[in-house]
Design goal:
By secondary structure, the protein is mostly helical. The protein folds into two domains: 110 residues, Non-ribosomal Peptide Synthetase Peptidyl Carrier Protein, Chain A, CATH 1.10.1200.120; 30 residues, no CATH class. Helix content is 56%, strand content 7%. A two-stranded antiparallel ribbon has the order 1-2. It has a two-stranded antiparallel sheet with strand order 3-4. α2 crosses α4.
Length: 145
């Protein structure tokens, strides 16, 4: 059983998947930072300086200035702003992956498939003949291989 597990764990697909998960986690952190540190402040400025981080509803009926103050007071909150930030994170990550895949697919399409050579030119009459031909069907010359 240990031998089978080792074979499974060392297979290329498992290692590729592990690398993809690690890279994906790092990429997610980068996009989250981009959203929280760049997009959200700009969006806040465009929407009249609404701070989505502190957009919440306190379920105890009291009013708190910030989400941190509500949490410190032990109030239960519905964190609408954090949810909006998570949605924006998801949309930006999905958009980035979509763009990367489009670029990769486009590069794959641009690479022409190798053309298999199936013909050659007779050195005597310059006719196109089959690659495996040993005698030219046009001039009947014997061809060297």
């Amino acid at each position: 059983m240990l031998k089978e597990f080792k074979e499974f764990a060392v297979k290329g697909n498992v290692i590729d998947l592990a690398v993809a998960v690690i890279i994906g986690g790092a990429f997610g952190k980068i996009v989250s930072s981009f959203v929280q540190d760049i997009v959200m402040p700009v969006l806040s400025l465009l929407t009249g300086k609404i701070d989505f981080t502190n957009l919440f509803v306190s379920l105890d009926g009291n009013s708190y200035g910030t989400l941190a103050a509500a949490k410190e007071a032990g109030a239960a909150t519905v964190n609408v702003g954090l949810f909006i930030t998570a949605i924006i994170d998801f949309v930006l990550i999905a958009l980035a992956i979509f763009i990367m895949l489009k670029i990769l697919v486009k590069k794959k399409e641009e690479v022409p498939a190798p053309v298999e050579v199936t013909t050659k030119v007779c050195p005597f009459c310059q006719s196109t003949i089959a690659l495996k031909a040993t005698r030219c069907p046009h001039c009947t010359s014997v061809l060297e291989e």
